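Now for today's protein.

===
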Amino acid sequence: MDREALVSGLSQDILTYVMHGTFPEAHIARELKPTGLDERFDDYESLVRLHFLLKPEVVQFVERLPERLRNVKTQTENVRTVSRGEVGGRINWPATVKKRYSTNPRDASLFVCDNRSESYDIAENVVLKRLLAILYETLQDCSKYLRADYEWVTERWRENLELVDVMERVFERNVHVTRIRDPEEYEPTERMLQRAEEARTPVYTEAAGLLRSYRASLDGDTDAIADLLEETAITPDDEETLLELYVLFRYVSTIESLRGESFTLSTIETDSQEVARMEDGDTEIALYHDNSASGRGLSFVPENFEKAREKLTRTEMIQRETREVMSTYFREEEFRQTTGRPDVIVLEVDTEERHEYLITEIKNSTRPDTVRTGIKETIEYLAFLRREDEFVYESDTEYVGSGWNGLLVVQDIEETDTAPLNEQRSIRILQASEVEAKLQDVLESVIL
């Protein structure tokens, strides 16, 4: 399944779930953001801003700003002032006589004067100021990244780093920009955008177009989100993460189709390790991603980790020693005491009668060695899966469950025959392009 197909499917999913508040934005943002960004970019809007800043048309817009700002439009306004003892402009005698008569007819020192003044607060300038504010604020957050050697930084920013300084000087000190009032929270309005689009000055028409593009991304426009994912600024650093997110969303949509209209999907808003929780009557389905699900009392601790040292076989001794070496090096407790931090999708079905699990491993590869590793890891996760320190699958003949409790997803293997689901054993294996059509068969065996 090529990158374009994954991006297309994932774009639709983000629109359907994330942008409608039924899937946690923070989780998706953490998975999508490039390596090296700090926690300020753990929310979706910040990533949109970063991507927006890196668009070639935005960089070109900033490059042309200093020259274009010389032609900022203003409008002339008549400003009427009242003064005593001095004349501050052209005297408006009718207004002066009227003012004296209404206040003090004998006050000959009172004058009403008219002055012509330039105003920068026209609709086009409010649009421009809002765009510049977005670019300026984003630059404040990520200027150090633009100056560093990150793959996702566009070549134009890297080659012309003085643009960062140019943008900052424009916003902070340009005499025309500083005279434009700060837009209200609701501005620019649609009417203001239309005025800017109809202007004959390129700086306004381009500003309006860029601002519309930015808003479309935040609002979840399908094409805009696809554009975000296709740009390196917001694409996962590795193809495997892209495939993991695609499979994760396929889980949600497939479960929804299985449970019908009564099915509800709830966003997880706390620090819980759950990505989503779904409830239907007395059935609760919890979905986890990229963690060991310890928040629900689940773990993947191997049995030989607890055996007395003298009872270990040579193979078990090697495994134990490997983990003990790791424990002296790594500080994170969860990492040290599991089979490895499993980058899996865990589905837990909880009813009054049973607890059921589906462990899914993702391998974005077609290499036999990688597929073999994925099979081993999936079986290992099932064999060592514990709930409240007790093995979930205790039987010697069913230590991996029914055979439908583990799923390995690999990339499409061209021109290679693979067994149908019902002929596979211990775990089930799907190629990426089969997930949408066949995941329901796997889920039905666990959920229903």
In short: The chain has three domains: 3-70+122-230, 76-119, 239-301+338-447. Confidence is low (pLDDT under 50) at residues 333-342. DSSP finds 17 helices and 13 strands in the chain.
